[in-house]
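Researcher: For the record, we're logging two predictions in this thread. I'll number them. Prediction 1 follows.
Model: Prediction 1, sequence and structure:
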Amino acid sequence: MQFNELLCQHSNIKNNTRFNSLTGHVKRIYNADIEVPGSSGIEIAKKYLELNNKLIGNQKELSDLTFIKSKKSHDVQHFFFKQNYNGIEVINSGIVISLNKENKITTVYSDYFPIVDLNTIPSLSVIEAEAIAKNAFKNYDRNNVIGKSELKIYADKAGETHLVYEVSLNMENFIPLGMVLVDSHNGSVLEKSSHGQSFITGKGKVFDPDPGTYFRDATLTASSNVDAAYKTNVNLTNLDGNGNVQGRYAKSINSNYLPNDLAYNSQNNFSYIRTQTYFKEVNVYYFINKMREYIGTLGISPTWKDGEEFLEYDASVNSVWAYGLNAVYFGTSDQERL
């Protein structure tokens, strides 16, 4: 059965569904009103996945999905599932099923990676991987110590999956330094993030406040001249300096794994106008970073209570806060960002 045929079995979701451009499987379903039989929320969520596993690319009849937790936000209950492969956790994977107070499914968020015949026997020992990870931070004048090393599965930006060692490093005083993903077969460093890096301040053009508030005119349209509302040369603090709009508290990534379709400036100057997709990217970064930076001044940690450092965001049909995925979606449907 084709995906559109499966989608037609649900009402109200044909125009509220987005697909992974690499795999063709469903990534997001919004504003749904799907009724599935079941006596409890978790039973309904599991039953929905069982009936629609092929929509998300699942071929294992849910044997590689583990229910990990549920959260309640107002009248909505969110059920979280984590993906594994042969018992090994898949990094950045997960499915969130959200139910309203009538126990109808309203949203489905899927970051599921179809994995076929991945060799899960590492060629490198954990000691060899840790040595590679420590060398990745050789520019730090510290005697780094290993925090924790775990074997996991990682999907890169091209959608290719790798068996990796996830190695966390600490400084001598046990303050977290960073995390390195080392390919367990060839020893290559696939990803590295640093908690101890220095952040920079870039420049950008934003609306602050929005044009409607600035002009005190609720009748403005997309074609209205709002140039006077631009705030130019604003400081974009906490950037990591890599030329993209990402930093300590927020980052933009393309959820369709198209890394070149993001704002980039080697001088970290992001002065776009509103007709450019990148303008939205800069605006979202500016306000998320500003909010979380302010939280820090109150003596409260700007990172969330579950330890997630970043708030990720992407562009799609409307601006919506995806509680379950710690993400903001914004912009236009042809520019999928997260």
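Researcher: Logged. Prediction 2.
Model: Prediction 2, sequence and structure:
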Amino acid sequence: MAFLGLCIVLAWGGLSQQSKPERAVLRSLLPSALGTDVREVIAQEDNASYSAHYAMQQQESLARRVAADAANSAWFQAQRLSFPKFNPTSQDLIIFDVGFNDGKDTSFYLRMGFHVVGIDANAVLIEEGLVKFKDAIEAGKLALVTAGLEDGTSLGNMTFWRAQMNAQSSFEKEKACQEWWGGCEPIQIPVRQCQGLWAFGKPHYIKIDIEERHYCCVNALRLIRPALRPDFISWEMHEFAKGQPYPMMDAQLVLNLWRLGYSEVKLVDNGGAEEGTFSGSLPADAIDWASQSKAWRSTQDLIEGGLPDARKVLDHSDHYHWWDFHMRRATSDSEHEGGSWK
């Protein structure tokens, strides 16, 4: 018996050096001895090894994210420094125009008295904006950034497909290069994380209109301290985003924001808005489709009732049908003279 026990100990001492097939053979040969179930001991060792490996992966993942966040923040800080006159005070209201396009929304926001940070992946549009809005930039009211947005830890350049119809440009080739858009061309642009935009200050409102990448900025709010989150946020629906058909992604985004305290919502019919503009107004002045009024409605009610299909409930014989989502935080009770923020 003592000899058998010694054999078991010697075999067990070498288990950690064995390959998995070899260990499987040993498991089938080793009997329970001295009141110890060897298979159970080996299983515990396996679990411990997996736990250690998983913990190491988590640490590596955290290290990558910390490094990516630092690099992302430094990049946006450098962009901020390239606009030395953009220095809003704590009393100024900032709008992040995510999806600058031809600048129509930015022009409207500037007329309403806001400071604006515009970002677009289309470098040509940003270059045109630097000329078109030169006076606003000189006055310290506007900053423009060329970058695409991603929600991962990979920072670098990506291929952006610039369509002849600029509003349809996208990272998705199939989206941008459809024949009826008039063709497209690939360009390399820097890709960054949306939370870096906070280098320019706390936004009062974030407007998001970027083809099939809206979730990058909406989900970024989870990484922002509550006190620095915007009072209002808007985005445009998409049939497909991150491989998910409508309304899966939008339903998830609405739910995520509700959990962050965005308890009021509007679904706005953008079919009648001027091309190149976002709903044609600020969130407070936008007309909710269901109530046909400017009144906000409960996000929880929308979640419980489900998102309606814009393609079925809207009727524009000569126009595509889509929603713009507007959401407001429960604590958003501020007002702005020109913008009816209430």
